[in-house]
Write a structure and sequence with these properties.
Helices cover 23% and strands 21% of the residues. By secondary structure, it is α+β, with helices and mostly antiparallel strands. It starts with a helix and ends with a strand.
């Protein structure tokens, strides 16, 4: 995760060689995709869990362009892969780190080793005017070193 903090503003980081989404499809659940009519927090109707995306060759732009931070940051071990962690870690502006929770796995980011790391990153990043946040359903929170603030 140290690489991530050092490169928080480097959006052009290459993907980690040898890493693939494989059987992880959590991004196909936690994000809305307007082009397909997929709402928040529900599985994409084009996902076949056994075979992956049924429209992969013709998937919409948001699906083509998105890669979670586990795919970009070699310092994140397999426990940070979204299907193992229970959340998707990404970096939409103005956040350096953003946790999008799986509603069926609430508070997954609070388990060890995640919460301690996120609190530490929140403390370090806020001094550089970067933020750590998380979303569960409709709620978006700014993560602080010792608490959270809901963003309206």
């Amino acid at each position: 995760m140290a690489e991530l903090m050092n490169d928080a503003d480097d959006a052009a980081s290459p993907l980690v060689e040898g890493r693939s989404c494989g059987d992880c499809h959590l991004c196909c659940k936690v994000f809305p995709i307007e082009e397909t009519g997929k709402p928040d927090d529900g599985w994409c109707p084009h996902l076949d869990p056994a075979r992956g995306c049924a429209i992969h060759a013709d998937r919409p732009g948001p699906c083509r362009e998105f890669f979670c931070l586990w795919r970009y940051d070699a310092s994140l071990g397999d426990d940070w892969k979204p299907c193992n962690a229970g959340f998707v870690l990404h970096d939409p502006a103005p956040f350096a780190l953003f946790i999008t929770e799986d509603v069926d796995n609430p508070g997954a980011w609070r388990r060890d080793p995640y919460e301690g790391d996120f609190r530490s990153f929140a403390r370090d990043l806020i001094s550089k005017q970067y933020f750590v946040g998380y979303r569960r359903g409709e709620r978006t929170m700014l993560l602080l070193k010792d608490g959270e603030i809901e963003l309206k």
